[in-house]
Amino acid sequence: MIFERAARREFAQAAAGISVALLAILISTQLIRLLKEAAGGRIAPEAVASLLGFAALNFMPVLLSLTLFVAILLSLSRTYRDSEMVIWFTSGQPLTAWMRPVLRFALPIVVAVALLSWFLSPWANLNRDEYKQKLSARSELSQISPGTFQEASEGRRILFVEAVADDASAVGNVFVASMQEGKLGVVMSDTAHQRIAENGDRFVVLESGRRYEVEPGTAEFRVMEFETYQVRVEDGEAQPVDPSPKTMPITDLLFETSDKARGELVWRIGVPLSALVLALLAIPLGFVNPRAGRSANFLIAILIYAIYNNLLSVSQAWVAQGRLSFWVGLWVVHALMLVPLLFLFFRRMSVGNFFSRRRG
Hints:
With 360 residues, this protein is α+β, with helices and mostly antiparallel strands. The chain is built from eight helices and six strands, in the order H-H-H-H-E-E-E-E-E-E-H-H-H-H. The two termini are 26 Å apart. Mean pLDDT is 80; it is low at 352-360.
């Protein structure tokens, strides 16, 4: 039908603009957080782009669900505002006739949400954790950020460098504080560079510096000047990532019987189901009085979305804690949201029947 094609085209145009806006907001907030961590030396600057990509994949199911909901809501609100829905009702068409184009538009997006939630999001979480393990296993010199104090060796060593060469082979104005055999040692050097021995061992060579050594609680200390001071460094061994429900694809999660795995399964199945319910909820929520503003309508829609999403998170947490049965947690939130869905459909259809009677 021409009507269905026009409706789906309008839904798609609205969804395209909304998804770009939401994705820009998501990427901006995540980028600011990652840049803050990189500036503080908690992550390597070159890791920002990869971690940003993993975060985007992780949040994509929720982003698509919200995009679907808002796109249908905006499109239907426009039909009310331009009085097209009045013509729709007076021609004898019920509000439920919108379900067909809405479902035909929503189902591919719901399938995409399911695939993202079931497979791509856990893959992104797993690769993010593995990537962080590899970063933490790198040598201390390769993790240094100029101008910041950085802990190393589980807090037993504090490093500071003022400048790093472009190829990271040399650093300038080095400060190193460490505890060795109960003594605090401070090394300061003008320059330092890496040296690789013939057997492959890597050394940091400090040049033209001093070492101060003091035993805490005593007044004794030693000062040593050196031309060169070599410290052997090596990359740590990347520890394997502990398996967790968040990193498992749904094919593996189905066979896990722990409470945490059951809770994660409630969330994985619930996200695409909630996207479908929200798409149907947007039909009656799209009602707008042409003579009044639509702010109240959108506030109610945002409130319903927030309640739905929070209830889904609560049911996941309760199942993971063993406070709620898995089978109850799987359906109770969606069944609860069917109550306002049916009520709003009944209320809006009564308005449509009113226009139909006036036409008769």
